[in-house]
């Protein structure tokens, strides 16, 4: 399976240019998500102003791709983004929100990182060093 969440770290312009396959998958799957379909209709009727229809009818929130809750696409994007660097939940959330909009993204990201075995094994505890008063 090809990565759908590839964005380059450190280059803000590259972060905005989501991998072409991810963009196509998000666009296609938006039509399978009833919530996003309803949002698209309301955006078209100008009932919702925070969202917009981008090129080719792709739903965006403040310029970010709206990722549908179908075929575990949201989970894959979170997993692939996290697996590339294993950053903490706050950094990962900030990185994801540069490109994507997912409902409950902050909570989903925190839950995913909390369950990551690698992160839990190397996590530095906030303790005083031994022998220091």
Describe this structure in words.
By secondary structure, this protein is of the alpha+beta class. The protein has one domain: Orthogonal Bundle (Endonuclease III, domain 1), CATH 1.10.340. It has 7 helices and 4 strands. It has helices spanning 12-16, 20-30, 34-44, 73-85, 89-96, 105-115, 117-122, and strands spanning 51-53, 59-61, 64-66, 100-101. Helix 4 crosses helix 6 (105-115). Residues 1-18 have low confidence and may be disordered.
* Second CATH tier, the architecture: Orthogonal Bundle
Strand order of the largest sheet: 1-2-3-4
Structural class, please? alpha+beta
Number of domains: 1
For the terminal residues, how far apart are their CA atoms? 52 Å
The average pLDDT is 78
CATH fold assignment = Endonuclease III, domain 1
Describe the secondary structure blueprint for this structure.
Blueprint: H1 12-16, H2 20-30, H3 34-44, E1 51-53, E2 59-61, E3 64-66, H4 73-85, H5 89-96, E4 100-101, H6 105-115, H7 117-122
Parallel strand pairs: 3-4
Antiparallel strand pairs: 1-2, 2-3
Helix pairs in contact: 4-6, 5-6
